[in-house]
Amino acid sequence: MSESQPQAIYLKDYTPPDYRIETINLRFDLNPEVTTVTSRMEVRANYDPAEGRRPLLLNGQELELVSMSMDHDPVGDEGYEISDDTLVIPHPPAHFHLEVVTRIDPSANTALEGLYLSGGNFCTQCEAEGFRKITYFPDRPDVMTRFTTTLIADRKDYPVLLSNGDRIDSGELAGGRHYVTWHDPSLKPSYLFALVAGDLACVADCFTTMSGKEVKLELYVQYGNEDKTGHAIRSLKKAMRWDEEVYGREYDLNTYMIVAVDDFNMGAMENKGLNIFNSRFVLAKPETATDMDFVNIEGVIAHEYFHNWSGNRITCRDWFQLSLKEGFTVFRDSQFTADMTSLAVKRIDDVSLLRTRQFAEDAGPMAHPIRPDSYVEINNFYTLTIYEKGAEVVRMIHTLLGPERFRKGSDLYFERHDGQAVTTDDFVRAMEDANGVDLSQFRRWYEQAGTPKVEVERAYDAAAKQYRLTLHQSCPPTPGQLQKAPFEIPVKTALLSREGAALPLRLAGESQAGGSERVLVLNEPEQTFIFEGIPAEPVPSLLRAFSAPVKLEGGYSDEELAFLMGNETDDFNRWDAGQQLALRVIVRLIEGAPRELDRGLSAAFGKILADDRLDPALVAEALALPPEEYIAECMDEVDPLAIHETRRFVRAALAETHREALAAHYTALADPGPYRVDAGAMGRRRLRNACLAYLVPLEGGSERGFAQYEAAGNMTDSMAALVALVHNAAPRHDEALQHFYERWHEDPLVLDKWFAVQAAAPAPGALERVKQLLDHPDFNIRNPNRVRSVIGSFVMRNPAGFHRDPAAYTFLADQIVNLDSLNPQVAARMLDPLTHWKRYDESRRNAMKEQLVRILRVPRISSDVYEVVSKSLNA
Ligand code: 0A1
Ligand code: ZN
To answer: Does residue 597 carry a pLDDT above 80?
Structure first.
């Protein structure tokens, strides 16, 4: 927080660091209120000293400087310049040793950045710029250093002392204190530093790498949670094996440690050899975690593990390159999850997230390219664009090159840049050099923001047996980028005969057909692809498996969408045809079409329910109507209540019409046990619970819901019933909530679910209920998970509840101002719904804008909140 207006930082201003820190020796004397940090660094000029001396700039925030010495000589006040966030030594020698002693107060750290306490244990979060809250250091990712770290603490309260690398020394000290020294042999930037000190249980295992090396696996959790670690350990071992098999990557250190903490701003952090996780992405057993939790844990464990190569051994030159590690790592973890579960389900889930949330970001005031040109607060750039769209961009390279050539490219990337801090351009160049291809135009995906639109025109010439597909691309303006140059868009395509067969594809100029699926490369504003030898007019299957992050307007009739729902050979597209048909039906109703169930949609729904050859997980996906956020995304002016009511009407009408089939599935899918967490069992539970959600609002449905709630022996079925009861305000939902609270109130992760289900309930009165939840003795504004489960669920997962009464906008602004004084990162994230004010009718627009203006007037708001609010007002 600073008095002056926060300033933007620009990629174009990047210069290499003037000094390297060759080694750092850190000593932490740990006490909750006063921790003393002694840092001894070997510093060497990274420029030619013959050309004159350059100042050494160290970052530091909220530190108390105790002393400083250079080559053992104390440095007095005249030897340095200090400000709120820097310490500058104006004329240092070209090579010297610097010792800096600082004091910090971890107990007062509510921002959860730097060194803080969670559940009485010390832990750190240094990405992106948290290390500067620990000690003075050139806190930028292109300064890579070898760390040796000594932790000193009371043995009784903090028997476990952890940091990166290998434990090289330990011993007892006077006054009941003890120490452990760690040495990390790898070069790493400060953002990957970590320490943990506390009283924790260790669950140990081991893994033998492909070259036969034994790696110790250690998972640290609060005592009492040991029985919830099995899934995380199994996931880690699977991820380690998978990365060897699919990418040829082996783990490098002797130990891999994971620590679960309850207070964490994000999901998890890939600190070298010592990951720190939000306990939500570690702890699971069937009684407390849903199937979705199990899948997410496996994915996040894998994500952090994969960072060891894509992020740690090869890191980012600067924070503009964040997607270098995040986009690539999300792509890798999505491949892994697809391999572990189901390719089609994973693709559907990823694309749903992209289309509901990332597309909105790309169309809003915070839109930025996956490699931004500027930022005010880097913490605001851990976005769906950097992560999810970044992964889609890597996926497109994979699609354009094919798996073997992509692997050649990743091998070259890992080999060429091991131990370096590099750019997204280096990644793309490795892909080019390994394969002799030119991706110059493709690089625009890194430079231009916004979601491109692809429109399709088709023409069949029966006499010439020729089929022509003309594709047009365009991209709307985004802040600071009014005109866009054409992208290179891979459009994976097949042509389906009226019998549903994928036809052999021969493009004009080719002598023979090259398979029945082709990647058409659209790299001009408009391009026509001519297919020869097509015997009758086909239905095109376009953008298969969502081969590019674009909005496709395929020009399909309702009948063609219904045909695709029954005949598509691409699982993703078959699902998407259903989504597009349902979307159309809902939008027509919102626009005033007569209130009746569309016959085509109902028939398609019935057909899916009747087809017992289909995978239950995919049937569950197909039965789900497009989410409210996606419907909003497709409308010019968003009316959240109309969207909610209409979608509810369609659901109720489908449920009424297909009541028997839904009930029959519900009964047939009952799991006689034993309980299993595998893709098959999860898919069946998903479908059964999708049926339940349709049935609960019908007459007699709430009894079924309550019966399931009472009988459930696992969290998946228990939560599905609770959500259905609470979100339909069904009879006895209060009883179920009360029972759930009594059973689970001592388990924070389960209690988060209890808060979230209530905050997301759409019925009138939501705002009042949420206010009551904030007054609940178990609400804690300092715990990000709890804030997300109450405030986040209300403002981001409950559009009807949130937008019903403009008083909710005032409520959210009040919460943000309050949160900002404690935890700016979390506060800025909660702002998202207000930033889209321009999408609503005039009265909502004004009410939301008024609150943004009010926030901006609050003295001393953080740079995090300042950036988001000012950009959304000025866009
Ligand atoms: N790099 C981590 C996520 C992460 C990012 C930022 C944080 O603090 C600002 C913390 C964690 C990942 O991708 O998993
Ligand atoms: Zn990551």
So the answer is: yes
Binned at pLDDT 50, 70 and 90, residue 1 comes out as very low
Q: Which atom of ligand 1 is nearest to the CA of 268?
A: 14
Count CB neighbours of 52 within 10 A. 8
Task: Pick the closest to residue 302 from 255, 237, 230 (CA basis).
Answer: 237
| Contact call for residues 489 and 454 (beta carbons, < 8 A) | yes
Q: Ligand 1 centroid to 191 CA: how many Å? A: 10
What is the rounded distance in angstroms from the CA atom of residue 64 to the CA atom of residue 84? 11
Q: Using a 6 Å cutoff on CB, does residue 396 contact ligand 1?
A: no
The verdict on the CB of residue 414 being under 6 Å from ligand 1 is no
Torsion, CA 647, CA 652, CA 657, CA 658, rounded to 10 = 90
Nearest-CA neighbor of 575 among 645, 636, 649, 630?
Answer: 630
Q: Provide the b/e sequence for 359-392 (b: ≥16 CB within 10 Å).
A: bbbbbbbbbbbbbbeebbbbbbbbbbbbbbbbbb
Q: Which residues are found with C-beta within 5 Å of the ion, ligand 2?
A: 326, 329
- Residue with the two structure tokens 């994500």: 303
The reported pLDDT for the residue numbered 227 is 98
**Can you tell me which residue has the tokens 């995380």?**
232
Instruction: Give the span between the Cα atoms of 565 and 623, in whole angstroms.
Output: 12
Pocket test for ligand 1, best of 109, 113, 264, 269 (most atoms within 8 A of CB): 269
Ligand 1 contact, 382 CB (< 6 A): yes
Annotate 50-113 with three-state secondary structure. HHCCCCEEEECCCCEEEEEEECCEECCHHHCEECCCEEEECCCCCEEEEEEEEEECHHHCCCCC
Residue count (the chain): 875
Residue 568, ligand 1, Cβ within 6 A: no
Cα(383) to ligand 1 centroid in Å equals 10
pLDDT value for 3 = 52
Q: Is 688 helix (H, G, I), strand (E, B) or coil?
A: helix
Q: Is the CB of 125 under 6 A from ligand 1?
A: yes
Query: Would you call 203 helix, strand, or coil by DSSP?
Result: strand
With beta carbons less than 8 A apart as the criterion, state whether 209 and 162 touch: no
> What's residue 5's pLDDT?
87
* CA-nearest residue, atom 7 of ligand 1: 127
Task: Give 380's contacts (C-beta < 8 A, 6+ positions apart).
Answer: 366, 828, 864, 867, 868
The answer to which of 5-9, 199-203, 243-247, 427-431 has the lowest mean pLDDT is 5-9
User: Annotated active-site positions, please?
Assistant: 304
